[in-house]
Structure formats: C-alpha cells, structure tokens
C-alpha cells in the first residue's frame, strides 16, 4: 500500500471509530477501490431529480444476485419501484419519508418462500420444511446479503443509498400494496439515486471494534468502558455536525426499546402469519 493509500485507509478507519483504532495486521500493497467504497459509506436522505443511467437497475440486480445464497435456494426477491405515484404510496406506508419519493429508484427486498412452495407443488412434494423458522431466517439473511451487494454496487457507481426499515411500519398494508403472495414478505427498502448531500459531512462513528469482535468465545469484558467511549465519540460527532448538546447513545437506545410500540412494527409477527409464515 502506498503512503497516500495508507494515509487514506487509516484516516477512514479513524473517522469511522474516532477512538484511535488502528489496523495491526499487514495490509495489501494497495487499497482496493471496493474497500474504500465500503469504508466511505454514508446514508443519503435527499436526492437529486437526475434519472439513473440506462442499465443501472440491471447492474444492481446482477450485483445483488452475485451474493452468497444458502443452499442455492435463492430465497429472496426484490420489488423495483420507479413510478412516482406508486413510489409515493409506498412512501406513505413507510414513515411518509420524502426522500423515498425523491429517489428515482426504490427497492423493497423480500423474503420469498413462495417460489419453493410452487416448485414443491409442481413435483408433488409436501414442502414441510417451509414451515420452519430456519427457512425464514435463511430468506432474511439471503435478502440482506443481496441488499448489501446492491448498496456497494450503487455507491461504486457514484450513487447514494439509504436503507429503509420503515417498510415494516405497516407491514400488512405494504404486502397488499405490493401484491405480495403467501410466503413472501417485505423486509427492508433501499432508496437509490444521486444524493444532494449526506446529512453529515463526516463518517458517523460506530461502536469500538473491540466491542463487537469476540476472540474465540463470547466476552463482555470491557463493555461498560467501550460503550462509554462510544457515547462520548458519538456525542462529539452530533455536536460537531448538528450543534446538538450532549447525546448519550446508550441511554437513548435503552429508551428506544423500552416500549413495545414501534411505529407499527409490533404487528410484524401478525403480518408474517397473514402471509402464511408459520415460523415453527
């Protein structure tokens, strides 16, 4: 890795952690563009009206489908939404967030066991495993891998993205709007387009690496210190970026999970059952 590339790499890592975190292991001779793209990730919640170049959707889908898939089952699908009226209706159910309407492309990644059910019916098989919780988890994992590949591909093309978990705020209504058949479920959305500018000019810090990486076995040693350090670094970030007073991430998270009322997401299990997921 050249001196300039090394400086870029370490500056990105430092920006992501703000705690003096460094990479101890030997690094490649050069910094791969893919790594720089990943480390530079920011969410965009404002988009230019510029249309995406022809072939963009297909390129993103190829990247998504190039991700790993468990047992080659390919238990995910995606709904690509570009029609403004349809996109507005989706946005209304997903927190009524304007950036969803602004983005020229909005994707809803779905768990899909319906295709396996159809194939089982075709070959006169009982499809008993489709009732298992593990198959649903498999579909969620596959869809998440596809989503992250899509994100990296879009960012490598100079676009901005924002994941949208709010597609689950009104889960059953969203399934109906998208005409999802039994055995399918909208897991998360992704707005894609040319960003007007990220909400924050700097990279938003993450928990210390040593807090999330457990060597050989699980350990919570140092958790209080790690979280306290993160409270400080994220609080400083918000003050610098938004001029906000001290914000305690850990206290905010505790308050966030104190109530079962999660903007409608407390009804997700019921919506899954309505979509014929037995989750046994």
UniProtKB/TrEMBL annotation:
**Which top-rank group of organisms is this from?**
Eukaryota
Question: So where does this one cross the membrane?
Answer: none
MF terms from GO for this chain are: oxidoreductase activity
SUPFAM superfamilies with a match to the protein in the record: FMN-dependent nitroreductase-like (SSF55469)
Q: Which UniProt keywords apply?
A: Flavoprotein, FMN, Oxidoreductase
InterPro entries reported in the protein's UniProt record = Flavin_OxRdtase_Frp, Nitroreductase, Nitroreductase-like
**Ranges of residues in domain Nitroreductase:** 40-194
Q: Which CDD domains match?
A: NfsA-like
Protein family according to the UniProt entry: Belongs to the flavin oxidoreductase frp family.
Q: What is this protein called?
A: Nitro/flavin reductase
């Amino acid at each position: 890795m050249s001196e300039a590339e090394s400086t870029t790499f370490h500056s990105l890592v430092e920006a992501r952690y703000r705690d003096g975190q460094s990479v101890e292991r030997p690094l490649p001779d050069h910094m791969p563009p893919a790594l720089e793209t990943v480390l530079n990730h920011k969410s965009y919640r404002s988009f230019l009206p510029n249309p995406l170049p022809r072939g963009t959707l297909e390129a993103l889908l190829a990247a998504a489908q190039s991700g790993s898939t468990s047992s080659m089952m390919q238990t995910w699908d995606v709904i690509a939404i570009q029609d403004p009226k349809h996109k507005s209706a989706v946005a209304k159910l997903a927190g009524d967030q304007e950036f969803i309407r602004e983005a020229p492309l909005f994707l809803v990644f779905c768990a899909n066991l319906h295709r396996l059910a159809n194939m089982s019916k075709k070959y006169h098989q009982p499809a008993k495993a489709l009732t298992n919780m593990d198959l649903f988890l498999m579909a969620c994992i596959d869809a998440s891998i596809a989503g992250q590949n899509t994100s990296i591909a879009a960012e490598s093309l100079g676009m901005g993205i924002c994941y949208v978990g709010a597609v689950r705020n009104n889960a059953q209504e969203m399934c109906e709007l998208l005409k999802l058949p039994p055995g399918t479920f909208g897991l998360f959305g992704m707005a894609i387009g040319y960003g007007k500018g990220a909400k924050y000019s700097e990279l938003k810090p993450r928990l210390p690496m040593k807090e999330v990486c457990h060597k050989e076995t699980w350990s919570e040693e140092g958790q209080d210190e790690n979280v306290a350090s993160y409270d400080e670094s994220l609080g400083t970030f918000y003050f610098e970026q938004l001029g906000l007073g001290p914000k305690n991430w850990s206290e905010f998270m505790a308050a966030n999970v104190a109530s079962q009322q999660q903007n409608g997401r407390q009804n997700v299990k019921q919506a899954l059952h309505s979509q014929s997921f037995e989750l046994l």
